[in-house]
Amino acid sequence: MVWKPNVTVAAVVHREGRFLLVEEHTDTGIRLNQPAGHLEEGESLLAACVREALEETGHHVEPTALLGVYQWPRPQGDITYLRFAFICEVKSFDSTRSLDQGIIGATWLTLTELEEQAGRHRSPLVLQCVQDYVNGRSFPLELIRHYD
């Protein structure tokens, strides 16, 4: 078996002092995460981020900057995630859209509320991404190159 990391994307969305998160069913219970998911074959990182946010929250978002690239090996040792996190703005909301299987719903939390629920985070990347955003971390989207 050839080892390879699981490439994922995440949308970090901030509005009026709150961050967009999803509550989702996982193999370890109900967890909080940014709208996030796996890169699909033939898809650009930016397109994956937009798609995942829509599928998991009903929000149409637009990435405005790269927040960072995060490598996290799960403690179980079976998977290493390579997460590309993007700062995104909400463009519109579709309240009639069905959300992805396993997603309970979207919620908006302040940094304090997120910190208070650290035990419910899907991974340590959830809080790290928000802290990086709050600390002003941001890189131009031009760092990402996609070739068809």
Can you give keywords for this protein?
148 residues; alpha+beta; Nucleoside Triphosphate Pyrophosphohydrolase; 7-stranded mixed beta sheet; 7 strands
Distance between the termini: 28 Å
- Give the SSE order as H and E letters: EEEEHEEEHH
Give the radius of gyration.
15 Å
Determine the number of helices (DSSP H or I, runs of at least 4 residues).
Answer: 3
Mean pLDDT: 96
Protein structure class: alpha+beta
Question: In CATH terms, what is the architecture?
Answer: Alpha-Beta Complex
What proportion of the residues is helical, as a percent range?
A: 10-25%
Uncertain runs: none
Q: What summary fits the major beta sheet?
A: 7 strands, mixed
Q: Find the CATH topology.
A: Nucleoside Triphosphate Pyrophosphohydrolase
Strand content: 35-45%
Instruction: Count all strands and give the number.
Output: 7
CATH first level: which class? Answer: Alpha Beta
EC number: 3.6.1.-
Protein name: Phosphatase NudJ
Cofactor: Mg(2+)
Enzyme class: hydrolase
